[in-house]
Amino acid sequence: MKRSIPYQIEPLKALQEFTSARIAIGRVGTSIPVKQLLEFKLAHAHARDAVYSELDINNLTTVLKVFNLPVLQLQSKVSYRRQYLQRPDMGRRLNDASVISVNDHCTETAVAIIIADGLSATAVNENAFGLLQILIPQLIAADFKLAPISLVEQGRVAIGDDIGYGLKAKLSLVLIGERPGLSSPDSLGAYLTYNPKPNLTDEMRNCVSNIRPDGLSYLKAANKIFYLISEAFKRKLSGVDLKDNAGLLGDD
C-alpha cells in the first residue's frame, strides 16, 4: 500500500503577515500544495491580462474633467501591443499626430502630468485618478502652474520627456502601469523628471513605486511625490542627485 505524503507546514508562515509575496506556502513532498499551485497559475494569468489590458481613455477623460484642465489624448509611435512589447524604443516617442497636438498646447508651465498605460493599463485605470485627487490640489495650493493632462496609449516612461519638452513644462510627472508581479498586477509607478527633453536616461528621474490600495497608499504616494517635486524645483534637478530625505509622509 502506497503511503500518502503528509502536508508540511512551513516554519516561516508567520512572515505572511508582512507581505503578499509567495513565501511559506507549505509543501507536499517535493512539490507545493494544489491550492497554492492553482493560486499561482491564477496570479500568472492576471499578470498576463494586465500586460494586454487597454487604457480606458473615455472614462479617464471624463473623470479628469473635475480638475478643469485640458486633457490631451496621445499615442506613441507604436501601432499595436505586440509591437509595443518588441520595440520599447517606439513606445518612448510620440507619433506625428500627437506631436502636433502637444505643440498646439505649448505654453510655459511648471508641471506636466502624463498618464500612460505602460505594462499594466489596469493599474492606471484603477489607481491614477485616486492619486491625482490628492496630488493635484496639493500642487495647485502650492502655486504650481499645471500643463494639460496627457493620456498616452502604448507609452513608456521616457515619452514624458517628449511631452514635457513640447509643453514647455519645467517638470514632467509620468504615472504609468508597472510591470505586473505575481501578487501585484495593478501597481502604478510615478516618475518625475526636472527639465524634461528628448533622449534623457533613467538616472535623471525619481520614481515612486507600488502605488495601489494593497501597496503604497494614495495619500502617502501623493505626499511623497509632492515632496520630490518641491525639492526638484528648489534644487533645479532630479534623478540620482535628488535624495529623498523625507521618509513616508502622511497617515492612511
From TrEMBL:
It is found in: Bacterial microcompartment. Its EC number is 4.3.1.7. It catalyses: ethanolamine = acetaldehyde + NH4(+). The keyword GTP-binding does not apply. Its cofactor is adenosylcob(III)alamin. It comes from the Bacteria. Belongs to the EutC family. This is Ethanolamine ammonia-lyase small subunit. The lineage of its organism: Bacteria, Pseudomonadati, Bacteroidota, Sphingobacteriia, Sphingobacteriales. The gene is eutC.
